[in-house]
Sequence to fold (330 residues):
Amino acid sequence: MARPLRMEFEGALYHVMARGIERRNLFMQERDHARFLSDLFAVRAKYGLVVHAYCLMTNHYHLMIETPRANLSRSMQALQTRYTVWFNRGHRRVGHLFSGRYKAILVEKEAYGLELSRYIHLNPLRAGLCDKPEAYSYSSLCHFISRTVPGDIPLDREWTLGQFHRSERRAQGFYRRFVADGMEGAGRDLASEVRAGGVLGGEAFWERVGRMVDGRYAGKDLDVPEARAIRGRGWGVKEIVPVVAEVWRIPVEAVRRRDGEQPARAVAMYLATRRGTETYGEIGRALDGVQYSAVAKAADRMKGRLERDLALRSVVNACERRLDESKVKL
Fold:
């Protein structure tokens, strides 16, 4: 299986996530949270990162990170290696701690940065871990709404608070209201707006990323699905569904409908999220109006199956070849 695209450039902003292997806990004791944050800010200092926000859940984490030096991969590898070595030693275990590589969504800072900050800080509330987000101890929210914050955590708050007011105290009050509005349903549904390749941004940002990918891989027939999609070799759901139906030898409606052929339908979702040009929300609406979260989950499960099931992978490859035949070679 091809590795996902890592689009790195100076000043890029990312929503970074990683889960424990087999969904096991990454944080089991108070000291685990403290150690992860210590490692995070040690890596921040070494690699020159800007850490805008964090939230440490039970079996996964969320980070909002900016990379002035275009070095996300090196930074995250260093962070997860440091923490894994410490965690394994402290909990008397061996082997991998994280489930594969981290996931990184490239984010348009001006259009989505504040929404991402709020989304990260509301995660514990959505997961039912607290009644109010400020009551959760393992996120950076207190740094934005409290007058007294831990001095040993050098969080980068300037950009976020600066979007609200020049006065720090007044900006904190506005940010508190901003987060509270999110609890009441305000704001954008970020997950539904992610495009293939893990890009969250408007059309102009999408085109800018496409130009960067094209410049970096010009003349190469790159075997990275997200890069192909960004470079203009992607497909829409309306193109994908008929091809999947043809390969499976079933009616098109059996792929499109909710009660249709589930393996074929899951393959269509997988291809749409990996090589498609539409957002998760648009994909869901085209497939009989399913929620974007169902699209994401089906695609993730299919990715896991393809790593184990060679026969299924062969069928998916056949779908990709037929779709590629309709596109001009890169």
